[in-house]
Write a structure and sequence with these properties.
By secondary structure, the protein is mostly beta strands. Helix content is 2%, strand content 45%. A hairpin with a 2-residue loop joins strand 10 and strand 11 (150-158).
Length: 427
């Protein structure tokens, strides 16, 4: 892959490509012993967190525990960072069987990869340079693996210091080489995707704020939140289409929707992706504004661009419960998403949404608000694993002609007191 490329926004704007400081470590070869070896190669991982501490459990193909807390905030291992923070996610897609990557986000700014099942550390990369007293955090959101020599990391936060060096600017994509976890010096500045919006007769800049992404062919479909510094404005809902071979970027907007930072793959549809636009309101929490700007889109990515195949808008159905959080695609017409409670008279519910008809069918009802997290779906086995912090367990459901039926649940390291928040299928 070329290293001297220049990405061009197809409306004629040139994106800055600048070097990032080399703040990575790599052990090379088979890695350096860091964690206890696992008894089997994991098929699932469960992240448990109270947002101050985190723990990651590893499970096999049958969702049986291999290690209930293989990596946690009490773990010390060699590298740039000694322990996990409370803000941890895994990549939308892992690099492949035999490796396991972790993203430590706000104020930690580190991505790490281990070999599995050995537990050896492959390498780490810090996603910003030396910050001095600035306090800037890049807040990495995902790792989009291109090939054995290239992976791109979306950096959500931006630096208001215009004189900050490129490695501390954020609001961009930065590239690492996953073969040795070194910075390649490549950066894609996404500030050209910022917008200007009106708030109380004042013009406010919204920032691209890239979120989660999916690689389709040579194109990264990258979600954009487009929210202002004070969280008082949001730009048009959109994704960026970054073609790493054609060296170009397009934006694809979803009329009327906002806050579209989550992109997920669709089983059995290698050219398609689903996008959750969770909506936006000012003042914060205004249900009418959120409903008006919430929805789910399905796009089809082809050579040279993408087409919007379907858009479901919460505002189109007065009975909609606005289920757009923690999106998981079942196929090109059916998705699972969470409608969060309000702590007063509603609780979380995981719904199946038919994007063609707009119908919403409850799958899991929690007893708390903001307690159902990100699920994992095994399309081949017809199994769904949903974390519910209210019962401190992952609920297992089997798919049948009538939907999903609960068939069991798994407690994850109950002695730690950390509720499960995310489940990932690793392959």
């Amino acid at each position: 892959m070329k290293r001297d490329r220049t990405f061009i926004l197809l409306v004629g704007l040139v994106l800055t490509m600048a070097g990032c400081g080399d703040t990575s470590t790599s052990t090379g070869g088979l890695g350096t012993p860091a964690l206890d070896p696992l008894d089997a190669t994991p098929a699932y991982a469960v992240v448990s967190s109270d947002f101050s501490s985190s723990s990651i459990a590893m499970l096999d193909e049958g969702f049986e525990l291999i290690d209930e807390s293989w990596l946690n905030s009490g773990t010390t291992y060699p590298g740039l960072v000694a322990t996990l923070s409370g803000d941890v996610v895994l990549p939308t897609r892992q690099q492949g069987t035999g490796t396991f990557s972790v993203i430590d986000r706000f104020l930690t700014d580190v991505v790490t990869q281990f070999f599995v099942p050995s537990g050896n550390l492959h390498g780490q990369a810090r996603t910003l340079g030396e910050t001095g007293d600035s306090g800037f955090s890049s807040n990495p959101q995902d790792i989009i693996f291109i090939d054995e020599d290239s992976a791109w990391i979306p950096r959500y936060e931006f630096n208001l210091d215009e004189d900050a060096p490129p490695e501390n600017q954020g609001n961009d994509l930065v590239e690492i080489n996953p073969s040795d976890w070194s910075a390649t010096g490549m950066r894609i500045d996404l500030s050209v995707l910022n917008t200007m919006e009106m708030v109380d007769e004042n013009t406010v800049e919204t920032f691209a704020r890239p979120g989660r992404g999916v690689l389709i062919g040579s194109t990264i479909v990258l979600g954009l939140d487009r929210i202002s510094a004070a969280f008082d404005a949001a730009g048009p809902g959109a994704v960026a289409l970054v073609d790493v071979e054609a060296e170009s970027i397009l934006t694809l907007e979803f009329e009327g929707l906002k806050n579209c930072g989550r992109v997920v793959p669709i089983p059995g549809e290698p050219t398609k992706a689903a996008i959750a636009c969770v909506g936006f309101s000012n003042p914060f929490g205004d249900a009418v504004q959120i409903r008006a700007t919430s929805g789910i889109a399905v796009i089809d990515v082809q050579t040279g661009g993408a087409a919007v195949e379907r858009v479901w808008r919460a505002a189109d159905d007065e009975d909609s419960v606005v289920a757009v959080n923690a999106l998981i695609a079942l196929d090109a017409e059916r998705v699972l998403a969470v409608a969060n409670g309000n702590f007063v008279d509603t609780t979380d519910t995981l719904y199946e949404i038919d994007l063609a008809t707009g119908s919403q069918s409850p799958i899991v009802n929690s007893t708390g608000s903001f307690t159902i997290g990100t699920s994992a779906y095994d399309a081949d086995g017809g199994r769904l694993y949903t974390p519910d912090a209210a019962v401190n367990a992952v609920i297992e459901l089997a798919e049948d002609a009538g939907g999903f039926t609960e068939v069991g649940s798994t407690e994850i390291a109950p002695s730690l007191g950390l509720p499960p928040t995310q489940v990932y299928r690793l392959n």
